[in-house]
From TrEMBL, chain A:
GO terms for cellular component: ATP-binding cassette (ABC) transporter complex; outer membrane-bounded periplasmic space. Residues 1-28 form the signal peptide. The keyword Signal applies. This is Peptide/nickel transport system substrate-binding protein. PROSITE patterns: PROKAR_LIPOPROTEIN.
Automatic annotation (TrEMBL), chain B:
Pfam families: BPD_transp_1 (PF00528), BPD_transp_1_N (PF19300). Gene3D superfamilies: MetI-like. It comes from Planifilum fimeticola. Residues 95-321 form the ABC transmembrane type-1 domain. It is a multi-pass membrane protein. This is Peptide/nickel transport system permease protein. GO terms for molecular function: dipeptide transmembrane transporter activity. The keyword Membrane applies. The keyword Ligase does not apply. It is found in: Cell membrane. Its main location: membrane.
Length: 529, 334
């Protein structure tokens, strides 16, 4: 008794320690872990992609952020899917579909056997639920589907969409991320009427080949197979590992700790080419880089097409591509980029011709023109681009003042039209020239919505609106071709280049198919090592 | 002393109020529409208006501020626009990682900086003093993004001894959460796999982060130590036959530390704030990265929450510094 009394402080601390030890130990079930801390544990059935930043919400009905799609795309299925490397669609959950003559009624027949990750079969009700939910939430993606007037689940395998008016790009929108079909059981996770948004921000509930199983914020996102998927992929586990620093990514790629390094800037790409076990994929992308010329609210001189043509002539396109993208880009011919249907290879382009630029300015009676150029550091190359444009225009006698602001501020200023010239990038959400022609040129879309040049031309409005309302692809191509000629001649934008898609990937990874519509999205279900 | 603590705590509330007002005003004055960032660029005016209403952005500024303060009182920091989660949840997720990194860096800075400073003072004008000076000057003048890269290149790239990023290997489970500090939690739950693994991950980033502060502490300790060593009571002690480490640490260092405490204290604040760059280089999932991403997104609630936490941290640290002062030399007047 005495002994215990004397040692009681020690005794109590031992007890305390023991009780703490009773808290569950996460690594306890004697997981035989190798003693070396830097074993590169990157097995054949594991695929590791290094990404530069963590993701925001993963709810397909909410996110408009393309980088979130690399997680959601393999976790959800859509009625239709992009076909391999092409921008055409193929059957997905829907094995076939019909569209009525007036283009307003779309009927999809679902393929049986698809199941969500919890085993629930995917049926017409789930499809209806997903789109109803998306429209009720009313965030970004609902804009695109505002065209829907009614969705009917006719029977378990038939679902009908009735549109308010003919909208030919509709089918293509269904292959985009926001067309992902969500398990209706998400409603069990609803909090304060949020339709499960809070839950789906960090979880997936789809029928894709993979599901999100773990998300360590700021570290990695882990996908594992959906046990009920019809596909039997080769990779059991896929990690999206967050490595912010490009040099760290490079080293990890070289050592084989990661299979893909997404965040290596173009200036460091050459060093990747020297790595023996790594290959560099290079493909033209649909990401275009252009300058907006503010024809509405900018410097009054910019209302004159001759001044805009002069600016277009003043740019040295090839040197700019070299300076800004180390040559890893293709000059943009017209608003619709190469690789998307509707692109016109015969579209005329402006040559680099300083004398022509000067004489056009003279013709327009403009002297001592001073313009501001708005940009931010959202894209690392915009600074160099702004400097190059400044130097180019100086040769033609136009003084450019650089105006660098924070990205969020830049967007606000674009929306309000507070700039003369501004850098910009654009990539399509779905594979239809609509994404370029109607967004950029329709005068209903002034500002951030797409018409950032505040350009208004009645003929243009008529052409692009008509093209968006008829079903015949050939007819649409003709209309867009005419519209593109006007777009070049009137020059509300400076069409710079299409960025190349560059992806350093370990040589042992097989089966990756690049689709320009799914940039940064991996067809992991078909890939292997 | 009690009076001082009460006074400081009152001051703390004043500072917090000031910080909330400043960050609130600043983030609302900057042009940029968070509703727009949320709905995407192709949304219509109607959608935009509805989201603005949902976020309360259509209200006058002062109402928004009062609402924010009310929320604060109930521990509600608002909903992050980017992650769409309560900011408090996000901070609870990310803050411990930053704290753990800063604490360990702080420990390194003291454990290496103080003895190095003492050594330089005792061996004044010898090889050791010059070496320590060189080491310190390199420390203050090397930017973290550079030293961090060099560390990664050596310890991960060439030697392969340490991992280059993250807090744990991807196949090691984090320890059961008690404090959120992996090292502490893994010890408490006797999870030695997690302990060892997280220790391997934190060593290099913490060393990198500590370098600049370590250098400053070394210089400060050296300077005040030299001053103390020349004072009469030390001479008397030596005359009385007290030598060696006992003299240095029992008699001299205690007094030499008083001026150094301020430097050491504020260095912890700098470590917390300065972790941003280190976190980016080492892929450390802390608050720094979170706030950088939030700023790019103009995520007001997140930015305000972060500023609040850092401000409170600074004030508390200053309070601690003053208390330490007091403990080291009770003669200092309140």
């Amino acid at each position: 008794m005495k002994m215990i009394k004397r040692f009681s402080p020690a005794f109590i601390s031992v007890l305390l320690l023991l009780s703490a030890a009773c808290a569950p130990n996460a690594n306890a079930p004697s997981k035989a872990k190798s003693s070396s801390p830097v074993v590169v544990d990157n097995a054949k059935d594991t695929f590791v992609v290094a990404i530069s930043a963590d993701q925001g919400t993963l709810d397909p009905a909410v996110t408009m952020d393309n980088s979130a799609w690399k997680i959601t795309y393999p976790a959800y299925e859509r009625l239709v899917e992009y076909d391999g490397s092409s921008t055409e669609v193929k059957p997905g959950l829907a094995k076939e579909w019909k569209v009525s003559k007036d283009g307003r009624t779309w009927t999809f027949t679902l393929e049986e056997g698809h199941r969500f990750a919890d085993g629930t079969p995917v049926d017409a009700e789930a499809v209806k639920f997903s789109f109803d939910r998306l429209l009720k939430i009313g965030k970004g993606p609902s804009e695109i589907y505002g065209i829907i007037s009614e969705i009917r689940a006719e029977n378990p395998t038939t679902v009908t969409f009735v549109l308010k008016q003919n909208f030919p790009p509709f089918l293509s929108t269904l292959a985009a991320n926001y067309g992902g079909i969500v398990n209706p059981k998400v409603m069990e996770q609803e909090q304060n009427g949020d339709l499960g948004q809070n839950y789906l921000a960090n979880h997936t509930m789809g029928s894709g080949a993979y599901q999100l199983t773990e998300w360590k914020k700021g570290q990695y996102i882990k996908l594992e197979q959906n046990p009920h998927s019809l596909k039997k992929p080769s990779f059991k586990t896929v990690y999206f590992k967050i490595v912010g620093d490009p040099s760290a990514q490079r080293l990890q790629l070289e050592k084989g700790e990661i299979d893909v390094a997404e965040g290596i800037p173009v200036e460091q790409i050459e060093s990747v080419k020297k790595m023996p076990d790594v290959k560099l994929l290079q493909q033209p992308s649909l990401l275009v880089d252009y300058l907006y010329i503010n024809t509405g609210k900018g410097n009054p001189a910019l209302k004159d097409p001759r001044v805009r043509r002069a600016i277009s002539h003043a740019i040295d396109y090839q040197s700019l591509i070299e300076a800004v993208q180390q040559g890893y880009a293709t000059r943009l011919r017209g608003p619709i980029p190469k690789g998307l249907w509707g692109h016109d290879p015969d579209t005329p382009v402006y040559d680099h011709d300083v004398e022509k630029a000067k004489s056009l300015l003279k013709e327009a009676g403009v002297t001592n023109l001073t313009l501001d150029l708005l940009y931010s550091d959202n894209k690392p190359w915009w600074e160099t681009e702004a400097l190059t444009v400044q130097a180019n225009l100086a040769e033609a006698g136009i003084q450019v003042k650089l105006k660098k602001v924070a990205y969020a501020t830049m967007r606000e200023m674009i929306d309000r039209g507070e700039f003369d010239l501004c850098t910009g990038v654009w990539s399509p959400d779905f594979a239809d020239p609509f994404m370029f022609m109607n967004n950029w040129f329709d005068s209903r879309n002034f500002g951030l919505a797409g018409n950032r040049a505040f350009y208004k031309n009645e003929e243009m409005d008529r052409l692009v609106r008509k093209a968006a309302s008829i079903n015949s692809k050939e007819e649409r191509i003709k209309l867009y071709r005419r519209a593109q000629r006007i777009a070049i001649d009137e020059a509300p934008y400076i069409y710079l280049y299409q960025k190349d898609f560059l992806l350093p990937i370990r040589k042992e990874v097989k089966g990756f198919v690049y689709n320009p519509m799914l940039e940064g999205i991996y067809n992991i279900a078909e890939m292997s090592k | 002393m009690k009076k001082m603590i009460v006074k400081r705590l009152l001051l703390l509330f004043l500072v917090i109020f000031g910080v909330t007002l400043m960050t609130f005003l600043m983030s609302h004055v900057i042009p940029g529409d968070p509703a727009r960032m949320m709905v995407g660029q192709r949304a219509s005016e109607e959608t935009l208006q509805r989201v603005r209403e949902q976020l309360g952005l259509d209200q006058p500024l002062w109402i928004q501020y009062v609402r924010y303060l009310k929320g604060l009182l109930s521990g509600d920091l608002g909903i992050s626009i980017r992650t769409q989660k309560p900011v408090l949840d996000d901070l609870i997720t990310f803050f411990p990682a930053t704290l753990e990194l800063a604490l360990l860096a702080f420990l390194f800075a003291i454990l290496i900086g103080v003895p190095l400073g003492v050594l330089a003072a005792v061996k004044k004008d010898t090889f050791w003093d010059h070496a320590s000076r060189l080491f310190s000057i390199a420390g203050v003048s090397t930017p973290v993004f550079w030293s961090g890269l060099v560390m990664i290149l050596i310890f991960y790239g060439y030697l392969g001894w340490f991992p280059s990023s993250g807090r744990l290997d991807m196949d090691v489970h984090p320890p059961t959460r008690i404090t959120g500090l992996y090292l502490a939690d893994s010890l408490l739950t006797l999870d030695f796999i997690a302990f060892k693994n997280s220790l391997w991950h934190i060593l290099i980033p913490a060393l990198t982060l500590s370098y600049a502060q370590l250098a400053i502490i070394t210089r400060q300790v050296r300077a005040s130590m030299i001053e103390v060593l020349e004072q009469d009571y030390i001479r008397t002690a030596i005359a009385n036959g007290i030598h060696g480490p006992f003299l240095l640490f029992r008699y001299a260092l205690k007094n030499a530390l008083i001026p150094a405490v301020t430097v050491i204290g504020t260095s912890f604040g700098s470590l917390l704030g300065g972790a941003v760059v280190t976190e980016t280089i080492f892929g450390w999932p802390g608050m720094g990265k979170y706030v950088v991403e939030s700023i790019a997104y103009l995520d007001f609630p997140a930015i305000m929450g972060f500023s609040l936490v850092i401000a409170v941290g600074y004030v508390l640290i200053n309070l601690l510094v003053d208390l330490t002062y007091f403990l080291l030399n009770p003669q200092i007047k309140e």
